[in-house]
Specification:
Length: about 170
């Protein structure tokens, strides 16, 4: 458990870091700011693959987020590293392939990590083990569905982090 003066840190991870994980980063950052906790939480996102490193989020993700008052425009894709597993308290995968990649990275390179590596939707009651669907090859409705799921899961995540901090 971290001392109260230390920031908790959250990393959201998907495959390319242009759809689901930057959406989750933006949503969670917005929730944290609304709760007045921005000074207590560090938030980032990354991808398991290097397909889009340096690129902004998918334009459809940006539009869907903007419609809900969430700005993703400053975000740029990056690839997750073994150092991330040491730096972040929560490493939250969008699907089981991403989760598997993170576990392999953890066991092969990072022995002393204390990060909680799990699926984001594990924080959503009744959704344990479920994936946030990848909207990349679909239409705009897929990005809306991602936002719905991510917003609800991130609300529960923030509640869990605040509860853990109080303990």
């Amino acid at each position: 458990m971290r001392k109260k003066e230390q920031k908790q840190s959250v990393l959201f991870v998907c495959m390319g870091n242009i759809c689901r994980s930057p959406t989750a980063e933006g949503v969670f950052r917005s929730l944290v700011e609304q709760a007045g906790l921005a000074d207590r939480l560090a938030i980032d996102s990354a991808g398991t693959h290097d397909y889009h490193v340096g690129h902004p989020p998918d334009a459809r993700a940006v539009l869907a987020a903007n419609a809900r008052g969430i700005d993703l425009s400053a975000l740029r894709a990056r690839q997750v590293t073994s150092d991330d597993l040491l730096r972040f308290d929560y490493v939250l995968a969008m699907d089981n392939d991403n989760l598997s990649h993170l576990h392999k990275l953890s066991t092969s390179t990072v022995k002393e990590s204390s990060a909680q590596i799990t699926l984001l939707l594990d924080f959503l009651p009744g959704a344990k083990g479920r994936s946030v669907p990848d909207p990349y090859f679909g239409g705009e409705n897929g990005f809306t569905l991602v936002l719905d799921q991510v917003e609800e899961a991130c609300q529960h995540l923030l509640t869990a982090i605040c509860r853990d901090e109080q303990a």
